[in-house]
Amino acid sequence: xxxxxxxxxxxxNRASMRSLIMSKQMIERNPDPYNAEPEPSALIERxxxxxxxxxxRSHGAVPDLPAGHRIEVSGIGVKGRSFSVExxxxxxxxxxxxxxxxxxxxxxxxxxxxxxxxxxxxxxxAIGNAEWTGVRLADLLDAVGAPDADDLFVAFTGADExxxxxxxxxxxxxxxxxxxxxxxxxxxxxxxxxxxxxEHGAPLRMVVxxxxxxxxxxxxxxxxxxxxxxxAPIQAHDYKxxxxxxxxxxxxxxQGLTINAMPLNAAICSPGSGESLSAGEMRIEGYAIAYxxxxxxVEVSTTGGRDWCQATFADDPEAHWGWRRWSLDTTLAxxxxxxxxxxxxxxxxxxxxxxxxxxxxxxxxxxxxxxxHVLVE
Length: 377
Hints:
The chain has seven helices and 24 strands. It is mainly beta. The chain has two domains: 2-258, Sulfite Oxidase, Chain A, domain 2, CATH 3.90.420.10; 265-376, Sandwich (Immunoglobulin-like), CATH 2.60.40.650. Strands 1, 4, 5, 8, 9 and 13 form a six-stranded mixed beta sheet that branches. Residues 1-16 have low confidence and may be disordered.
């Protein structure tokens, strides 16, 4: 598993990252390297998550890349070339895609109620919905002559360094060629019509809609066409799913399920667990996401899962890869109340009821019904 590296040369230092967390009112999950998520109620105030409220997942220090930074493109069938961001903008058609990015460890705290896991204790905020602007990876691959073959992979290298089980290496990840050529996979330089902030991958990052956030490499330095997945430690020895009887010590990383496509999920963002509320009318709000399938229904229980009411979707634009915000107006009596949410996709698939049915030592992919306990006075 990853041992997160602290500050390195040319990286953003801890003091500057702490100033970010104070100005952004984020919940710090790891101070060094900086990992943070927004307050849940702030997360769903808008359809598009502002950069200032977008979760930050760092595996090492934030690199300080120079002006004119170039991205190398190489590999099978490719005549080696390099591009600056300005050259990409000039050479290819600009495209914008609205898409959720979500850490595979989102809602890990629910898993940790079942048993200890590795990784940062993410609540429901390691997720965000934004409009990303850049150029299609497919257009770049065509321009450099990359073969369109289903048995190939496209690997991405970032400027950040990580340590996985004692092996230090630049961040490296890969996706299958078929996904790489999907029309919504971007090399992005902007987020919600703003240049990327350093902590979100400036000057250029990948955006791979529908896949775990780890596949959307930040601080991109190299793209390589390969006949095997990336051999970088973070690809080969992390972000894999194992059964509950496997531990970090017994895991055979070659047998783990590589986490790519993300599953159906939903969460309550307001009220927050542990809040004290006034009795009477109130609104319960949150998000749901199904990625390549549409969220068809969200149901909320105010009785701990005994009875259910259908929530109403917010009047947001339809976005294939975006989330759906929802709300339910209800009345709560005095006492300790147990709120639950569950979602269904357009195929009728729902979420599992309990996190213990999906527990794994890394705390990945918690998609169980989300529970919130409040005190109504």
